[in-house]
Amino acid sequence: MKLYLLRHGRTRWNEEGKLQGRTDVPLNEEGRAGALRAREELRHVPFSAVFSSPLSRARETAEIIAAGKAAVTTDERLLELRFGAAEGMDIFSLPPEERPTYLLFSDPARYVPPAGGERWDELLTRCGAFLHDVILPGEGRWEHVLIVAHGGAVRGLFGAMFGPRAGEIYGRRVQKNCAVNIVDCTGGTFSPVQIAREYCEGV
Length: 203
Prior knowledge:
Number of strands: 6
Helix content: 25-40%
Number of helices: 7
Shape: globular
């Protein structure tokens, strides 16, 4: 079984450098164009199942990519990390090492959430539960599965799939919007096939 794991398309808050978290910011036109490019890149993949975060930026990205192939099922365990009091913050105005998300991607074991935010271990628990409850039982039934989530949630899924190796496999910065990761799942074991090697400097 092959998993195609993406971050959603861009939004106005991505452009403005605002930390989104659970705030439901929709795709902008660039975000929809990015989803269409991803659909073209994946046009030959016959998706058996499609899963998305319920936030509109992820759900619409999944709907665009999977159009005509499979219905989108949303799952709250794919929601973005909750950033609490920092949601809406202009992080582009801060040096990279002072941004609330810096450690989340560079050294998540040391990540300290903003007030009211979600911890790294909580993210790993829900991402691991999604993989255990939804993805692993699908092996043998599904050949190609599309999963559209968020920057923090994608990092959490990598953490749940690969454990201590996740940082080495994933990298140290949030992946670009609509960048495609491909992971094989055989016998309940995850193996990287194609990992997005391009990263964006901001959100």
